[in-house]
Design goal:
Protein name: Killer cell lectin-like receptor 7
Signal peptide: 1-20
CATH architecture: Roll
Order of helices and strands: EEHHEEHEHEEEEEE
GO molecular function, one term: carbohydrate binding
CATH topology: Mannose-Binding Protein A, Chain A
Radius of gyration: 16 Å
Distance between the termini: 25 Å
Helix content: 10-25%
Organism: Folsomia candida
Keywords: Lectin, Receptor, Signal
Length: 175
C-alpha cells in the first residue's frame, strides 16, 4: 500500500516515506535526450503506419504489462485522451512509484505530463477516467483552480500534481 503525501496541489507517492529526489543534472538530461532519439525509431507494438502518422509519439518501453508511449504534442487533457484513443490506446493510469520513475527516466522536455486522472466531485479523491476511482483516503485535495481539473505527472520532483485540464501538456498513452 502506498502512502500519499500532500504538497499544496501536488502529491508525492512513496512506500511509507517520501521518494528521494535528486536535482536535475545536465548530464542526465543529455543522456535522456539521446535515449529519446534512439527510441524514435522503435514503434513498439504500435504499427509502423500509425507511427508514421503520429511522429511526435515515442515508445518508452514496456512496464508492468503496459506498452507506454510519450506524446510530445501539447494538448488539453481531453484532447490528449482523444489522441490516445485515436491510436487505439488509453491515457496512462500510473499505478506504482517505480512506474513513475520509469517514465521520469525515459522522458525529457516537459514540466507536467497528462495522466488519465481527473478530480472527482467528492473532495479528497481522484478517479481514472476509463476505469474508476483511485483510493486516496489519506489525502485531502484542495484545488486553487476552477473548472475541470486533471492529474499530471510532474518531472522534477517526480510527483502527481493537479492542473487545469484545459492547459496544454505532453501526455502518456498505453496499450
Amino acid at each position: 500500500m502506498y502512502k500519499l503525501l500532500m504538497f499544496t496541489t501536488c502529491v508525492l507517492i512513496g512506500a511509507k516515506a517520501a521518494l528521494s529526489v535528486k536535482p536535475v543534472d545536465e548530464e542526465v538530461e543529455l543522456h535522456r535526450a539521446r535515449m529519446l532519439r534512439n527510441r524514435i525509431e522503435d514503434s513498439g507494438p504500435l504499427s509502423k503506419q500509425m507511427k508514421t502518422n503520429h511522429t511526435t509519439v515515442i515508445f518508452l518501453g514496456a512496464f508492468n504489462g503496459k506498452y507506454i508511449y510519450y506524446d510530445m504534442t501539447p494538448r488539453t487533457q481531453d484532447a490528449a485522451r482523444a489522441g490516445c484513443q485515436l491510436m487505439g490506446m488509453k491515457l496512462l493510469r500510473v499505478d506504482r512509484v517505480d512506474e513513475m520513475e520509469f517514465i521520469n527516466n525515459g522522458t525529457t522536455g516537459y514540466d507536467y505530463i497528462w495522466t488519465d486522472g481527473t478530480l472527482n466531485e467528492v473532495q479528497s479523491s481522484f478517479r481514472w477516467a476509463h476505469s474508476g476511482r483511485v483510493n486516496v483516503p489519506d489525502a485531502i485535495v484542495r484545488s486553487p483552480f476552477t473548472g475541470e481539473i486533471g492529474l499530471a505527472l510532474e518531472k522534477n520532483p517526480t510527483r502527481f500534481c493537479i492542473r487545469p485540464a484545459n492547459q496544454q501538456r505532453h501526455s502518456l498513452c498505453y496499450i
